[in-house]
TrEMBL record:
Domain Enoyl reductase (ER): 20-348
Molecular function per GO: oxidoreductase activity, acting on the CH-OH group of donors, NAD or NADP as acceptor; zinc ion binding
SUPFAM superfamilies: GroES-like, NAD(P)-binding Rossmann-fold domains
Family of this protein: Belongs to the zinc-containing alcohol dehydrogenase family.
Record-linked SMART domains: PKS_ER (SM00829)
Keyword list, A-Z: Metal-binding, Oxidoreductase, Zinc
The protein's name: Putative cinnamyl alcohol dehydrogenase 1-like
One Pfam family it belongs to: ADH_zinc_N
InterPro entries for the chain: ADH-like_C (IPR013149), ADH-like_N (IPR013154), ADH_Zn_CS (IPR002328), CAD-like (IPR047109), ER (IPR020843), GroES-like_sf (IPR011032), NAD(P)-bd_dom_sf (IPR036291)
PANTHER family for this protein: ALDEHYDE REDUCTASE (PTHR42683)
GO biological process: lignin biosynthetic process
Length: 357
């Protein structure tokens, strides 16, 4: 470990253009400040939003870009003002690495809604240094945006909880759906959706998976523990299920109709949007008016909720279903993720990939 004032070299895999193809990339980390920790990255999950970023789907990408925001690693250096962590701690870093700390969301501990939040990649720190993500061997992060992984939790299992897990936990917690006895729907059974089933079941909910085809029925019911399974094109079954759900967590990341799912909600039910979609969604107003239903959204979770979901999953024995890969497989993993060919989250064994060799 060097001086805190000395910039250090990191080796990652970066996209250079909207093709999204990643290849080795060497860069300097920002200076480690007094309130920062340096993390040696062990594992990093692959999220669908990483695809959006590297392919410039939202028109805001800057290259070269090292993606990856479900980061688990070991603290190897701490600044003199760091109080929450020590060298050797196993920690997690999610999508955010900065915020203004003075706005209303920041003061309410919901810094994910800060207008000046700083993303862990494809962004710029206040000192002008580009942020780079977790598909690399090291990163430097302010201690506020680092969480400790509970003892006894496998670090590779913790990675998807830092985005997929907290993304589901946050709205259930915020909207009061964290009590037992509710009936919920999970629309889409990918990385976020499979965590939705597991977390909702751990909260004591009756969970229905809603999908466009029948091919994931057995996985949903037998492996993930869902109580029911609906194929959205089966009009008869959809009509039978009308007005039966307290909420639906909509994880679908592509344009899709909302009206079939609004019909499944009870009075005062909520359709909670989580997929990043860059085209307008449509519905007719009576679909919400005639049941006082809500279409709302939720974005990841706060640092407080990230800590909560880790401890919740540890206490309830909730684990994510992962497929472990090495970094040299990352482009194939990206292609498979785009085809929804993963059950249910890729996690890159970063340390085992030996990026510095």
């Amino acid at each position: 470990m060097g001086s805190l004032e000395v910039e250090k070299t990191a080796i990652g895999w970066a996209a250079r253009d909207p093709s999204g193809v990643l290849s080795p990339y060497t860069y300097t980390l920002r200076n480690t400040g007094p309130d920062d920790v340096q993390v040696k990255i062990l594992y990093c999950g692959l999220c669908h939003s990483d695809l959006h970023q590297v392919k410039n789907d939202l028109g805001m990408s800057n290259y070269p870009m090292v993606p990856g925001h479900e980061v688990v690693g070991e603290v190897v250096e701490v600044g003199p003002e760091v109080t929450k962590f020590k060298v050797g701690d196993i920690v997690g870093v999610g999508l955010l690495v900065g915020c203004c700390k003075t706005c209303r969301p920041c003061k309410q501990d919901i810094e994910q809604y800060c207008a000046k939040k700083i993303w862990n990649c494809n962004d710029v720190y206040t000192d002008g240094k580009p942020t780079q993500g977790g598909f690399a061997n090291f990163m430097v992060v302010e201690q506020k945006f680092v969480v400790k992984i509970p003892e006894g939790m496998a670090p590779e299992q913790a990675a998807p909880l830092l985005c997929a897990g907290v993304t589901v936990y946050s709205p259930l917690n915020h909207f009061g759906f964290n009590q037992s006895g509710l009936r919920g729907g999970i629309l889409g059974l990918g990385g976020v959706g499979h965590m939705g089933v597991k977390i909702a079941k751990a909260m004591g909910h009756h969970v229905t998976v809603i999908s466009s085809s029948d091919k994931k029925r057995q996985e949903a019911l037998d492996h993930l523990g869902a109580d029911d399974y609906l194929v959205s094109s089966d009009n008869e079954k959809m009509q039978e299920a009308a007005d039966s759900l307290d909420y639906i967590i909509d994880t679908v990341p592509v344009n899709h109709p909302l009206e079939p799912y609004l019909s499944l909600l009870k009075v005062d039910g909520k359709l909670i949007l989580m997929g990043v979609i860059n085209t307008p969604l449509q519905f007719v107003s009576p679909m919400v008016m005639l049941g006082r239903k809500s279409i709302t959204g939720s974005f990841i979770g706060s640092m407080k909720e990230t800590e909560e979901v880790l401890h919740f999953c540890k206490e309830k024995g909730v684990t994510s279903q992962i497929e472990m890969v090495k970094m040299d497989y990352i482009n194939t993993a990206m292609e498979r993720l785009e085809k929804n060919d993963v059950r249910y989250r890729f996690v890159v064994d970063v340390a085992g990939s030996k990026l510095d060799q």
